[in-house]
Design goal:
The complex is a heterodimer of chains A (about 150) and B (about 675). Chain A has 6 helices and 4 strands, in the order αβαβαβαβαα. With about 150 residues, chain A is an alpha/beta fold. Chain A has a single domain, classed as Rossmann fold (3-Layer(aba) Sandwich). Chain B has about 675 residues and is of the alpha/beta class. Chain B has 4 domains: about 120 residues, Rossmann fold (3-Layer(aba) Sandwich); about 240 residues, FAD/NAD(P)-binding domain (3-Layer(bba) Sandwich); about 170 residues, FAD/NAD(P)-binding domain (3-Layer(bba) Sandwich), CATH 3.50.50.60; about 70 residues, Alpha-Beta Plaits (2-Layer Sandwich), CATH 3.30.70.3270. Chain B has 18 helices and 34 strands. Chain B is elongated. Classes of the chains: A alpha/beta (about 150), B alpha/beta (about 675). The interface between A and B is large, with 43 and 46 residues.
């Protein structure tokens, strides 16, 4: 068991997706039975425009080793322009997350439409692979737990 | 303490094969707030649903989480079951452990662990769910139709025949639109006016239809079922109630040489005029910029000859307001003049290079030549006519990359009509492709070639120039590979069909979107071809792209059925997933920055003025209009003060879900 844990560390990827495109795309991956890494946890939102940057921070605080934000392709938003708001927001938020000590290599943004089940599976596998290589994230819970954390 | 019921479905083997459903139920039972957790083979089956209903009663549940398939599959089913058991349906959530888990993972431990996480997150979310109730909006059962062409007329008749009031407006003095100006219609060659004018009269006489011609939409306010519209009735200077339509004023008007818009400039009209003899209403208007009395105060003949005293030089534009429940854009399209697209074709420079719409007027029995084909320069009957298709259409450089759809058919018609009227005449048609898709369309084009001798040449025309009273057309026949030089008497250009010049302006007034060619965008090009992204606003006819008459009429019928469905209830019911004030803060912390107003794609955020105890204006805060809100939640994230929230996806619910998903 110990040896296995070293080769493939247990990681959790939180995926914040919109209801209309990526959630449906992940459904399609399911109905098409496309196998992909089991590290991903999908959280359904109405629109990428609804996804608060603090949700990402909260995820990292609560055990996420990486996050994916994915919604409708530009120009295909169910709500016309929510994904444009999201796109603008994330370019800024990357810097904030970096400042907070969250490695940008653990933050992924993508567009996956309701027809792109295979793209979703591919995305998850890609993220899972590179985050596994990075290993589990240093979690910043309460200051107390941080103090106890043993750094190599 | 909450009392949540968790129901884990095996979906036969679909979930059970890779997820230990009993194990998931067992660990969920230990979660705080969970009153009961069970697993079952088929939760969506009747006994499965009964199990949920019974548990709600037995355990006094105040929330239900069904761990099964995608909510896109069965959310409605399970929420329905909860409602039947007396639980507010919005207290029921689904945890997707099939599409997002059992079907995509094969390691049983991993899949079970993930299923546990998913259900735990949904339980945490559901604990914070609040009872929600469908939003009920009253409906004004009256429709406004903008544009009185065949699209608008047909939609008006269909809606009115369904029993609802209709206000039909047209910016021109008469309804009829483009179809009224056509000669004969493909593929049956029946006279356009013969089939249209009875419909125009029907529309005018229908007890449910209010006809407002010479009127424009100025402003709209409100939302589906509850629009308030402002319409400008342009000054007609003729009282339509008193006027009998005798036509004496028009005959006596001394200003006679105004190019007629209806005749595409080939004929003239007076300053007081009806656009065409069968106009509905058949009451003239005065064209103020050309009227001598209105410009310099001299003349006044029409007032003198009018026996009923209908002339009123003091008339002014008036704004009228209506409340309507649905709006139909039926504004049609505009046929271009080729002058600014292909100067090498000489349209505008050579009188005998005309547009297809001008040819329609020449071929029309009520046109300026009374249906005889005579070329505009000298009135000679042309012996050779060259028709050039795709004049602008399908040319990215000209700015019209799309196919105008109707030109192949009307060009074939023109070639036939020309041959029917000038028996020894010869028609040449330059084409890129012949796109004759429609019932009896290809047969029609074939008939034009085989019976009426139209000579079809596949290729483009490079240049048209005048030489000794004839037009020299230089082009290429790509099938034989030869350069062609045709000495013609007249050239007819099938110019591109473009969006109306004021299309963007109207789209902004209506709050609907348009594409790169300024045609209005459908909600979905295939599945919602007559809806727009704005609820309650529909598209009929060619305003969303070039259409022929049968397609236009079909789209109007589709619009009418949508409007009738909208009007079939007294109250509209909508999903309550809308933005709202956060429960505890209400709008107390709103600073009035109104960033949410900019973020909202639906103009659903209004402002509200708060007054203090002495009725002084304290400040302005944002207020969500539930009728317009579609529930995207963009405003919630943008709100700096954090006082907005999204029903069903509140910040509290999302944060609890994230924390529980982490499971630390």
């Amino acid at each position: 068991m110990q040896a296995e844990a070293v080769t493939k560390p247990k990681i959790k990827i939180f995926a914040f997706v919109c209801n209309w495109c990526t959630y449906a795309g992940a459904d399609l991956a399911g109905t098409s039975r496309i196998n992909y890494a089991a590290d991903v946890r999908i959280i359904r939102h109405t629109c990428t425009g609804r996804i608060d940057p603090l949700f990402l921070v909260k995820a990292f605080e609560n055990g996420a080793d990486a996050v994916i934000v994915s919604g409708c392709h530009p120009n295909d938003c169910h709500y016309n322009e929510g994904n444009y708001l999201a796109r603008r927001r994330w370019t800024v938020v990357r810097k904030l997350l970096d400042f907070m000590g969250i490695d940008n290599r653990r933050v992924y943004f993508s567009w996956v439409s309701a027809a792109e089940g295979a793209k979703w599976a591919d995305l998850v596998n890609r993220v899972s692979k590179s985050v596994s290589e990075l290993g589990p994230a240093r979690h910043f819970g309460s200051p107390a737990t941080q103090a106890q954390e043993v750094r190599p | 303490m909450s009392r949540i019921g968790v129901f884990v479905c095996h979906c036969g083997e679909n979930i059970g094969r890779t997820v230990d459903c009993a194990g998931v139920a067992e660990s969920c039972a230990k979660l705080p707030g969970v009153a009961v957790a069970v697993d079952y083979k088929y939760m969506c089956s009747s006994p499965g649903q009964d199990m949920i209903k019974n548990a709600i009663a037995e355990h006094h549940l105040d929330g239900v989480v069904v761990a099964a398939c995608s909510p896109r599959m069965h959310e409605k089913t399970f929420r329905g079951a909860c409602a039947q058991a007396g639980l507010n349906p919005y207290l029921c959530e689904m945890a997707n452990i099939r599409e997002h888990c059992s079907w995509v993972h094969d390691n049983r431990d991993d899949a079970t662990g993930k299923a546990n996480d998913i259900v735990r997150a949904l339980v945490a979310k559901t604990i914070r769910n609040r009872e929600l109730f469908p939003i009920k909006i009253p409906v004004t059962k009256r429709a406004l139709i903008v544009g009185g062409g065949i699209a608008g007329i047909q939609a008006a008749l269909d809606i009115a025949n369904a029993g609802h009031e209709v206000i039909l407006i047209d910016k021109n003095p008469s309804i009829g639109g483009r179809m009224a100006a056509l000669s004969e219609t493909f593929p049956t060659l029946d006279c356009s006016q013969c089939i249209l004018t009875p419909k125009m009269v029907d529309a005018a006489q229908h007890p449910k239809i209010t006809l407002l011609t010479y009127a424009e939409l100025v402003d709209i306010d409100g939302f589906v079922g509850n629009f308030k519209v402002k319409i400008r009735k342009k000054a007609r200077y003729v009282d339509p109630v008193k006027c009998t339509g005798c036509g004496v004023c028009t005959q006596k008007c001394p200003v006679k040489k105004i190019p007629s818009e209806f005749d595409e400039g080939l004929g003239n009209r007076h300053a007081i005029y009806t656009p065409f003899p069968q106009a509905v209403p058949n009451k003239p208007v005065i064209d103020a910029p050309h009227c001598l009395k209105l410009t310099n105060g001299k003349c006044g003949i029409c007032e003198k000859v009018c026996q009923v005293g209908a002339i009123n030089y003091e008339d002014t534009d008036r704004i009228v307001e209506y409340e309507v429940g649905a709006i139909v854009a039926a504004t049609g399209l505009r046929a271009l003049t080729a002058a600014d697209i292909y100067p090498e074709y000489g349209q505008g420079r050579y009188k005998d290079v005309i547009t297809a719409m001008q040819f329609e007027r020449l071929a029309s029995a009520s046109g300026p030549t009374l249906g005889q084909i005579k070329r505009p320069s000298d009135g000679k009957v042309p012996e050779k006519v060259v028709f050039i298709q795709c004049s602008g259409s399908r040319d990215c450089n000209a700015g019209y990359p799309y196919c105008s759809k109707i030109c192949c058919m009307y060009t074939a018609k023109h070639a036939m009509l020309y041959h029917h009227k000038v028996h020894d005449g010869k028609a040449y048609v330059f084409y890129m492709d012949v796109r004759a898709v429609g019932k009896n369309y290809d047969e029609f084009v074939r008939r034009g070639i085989e019976e009426d001798g139209a000579c079809y040449l596949r290729g483009r025309v490079a240049k048209v120039y005048e030489d000794e009273g004839s037009l020299i057309v230089k082009g290429i026949d790509t099938l034989s590979g030869q350069n062609m030089t045709i000495k013609a008497d007249m050239v007819v250009l099938a110019t591109a069909m473009a969006a109306q010049s004021d299309a963007v302006e109207l789209a902004q007034t209506l709050g609907i979107s348009y594409d790169q060619n300024r045609f209005y965008s459908e909600l979905h090009p295939k599945l919602n071809p007559v809806d727009t992204a704005t609820a309650g606003i529909f598209l009929a006819g060619s305003c969303s792209g070039p259409r022929d008459i049968p397609e236009t009429v079909a789209s109007s019928g589709a619009v009418a059925s949508k409007v009738a469905a909208l009007f079939s209830k007294d109250l509209l019911e909508r999903e309550p997933v809308v933005a709202t004030a956060k429960v505890f803060s209400a709008m107390n912390s709103c600073s009035g920055c109104l960033a949410c107003v900019d973020a909202c794609p639906y103009h659903a955020i209004e402002t509200e003025t708060l007054l203090d105890k002495k009725n002084n204006i304290e400040r302005v805060v944002a207020k969500v209009n539930e009728g317009l809100c579609q529930g995207c939640g963009s405003c919630v994230v943008i709100c700096r003060a954090g006082c907005l929230d999204l029903n069903g996806y509140t910040d509290e619910q999302m944060y609890e879900g994230i924390v529980a998903m982490g499971g630390r």
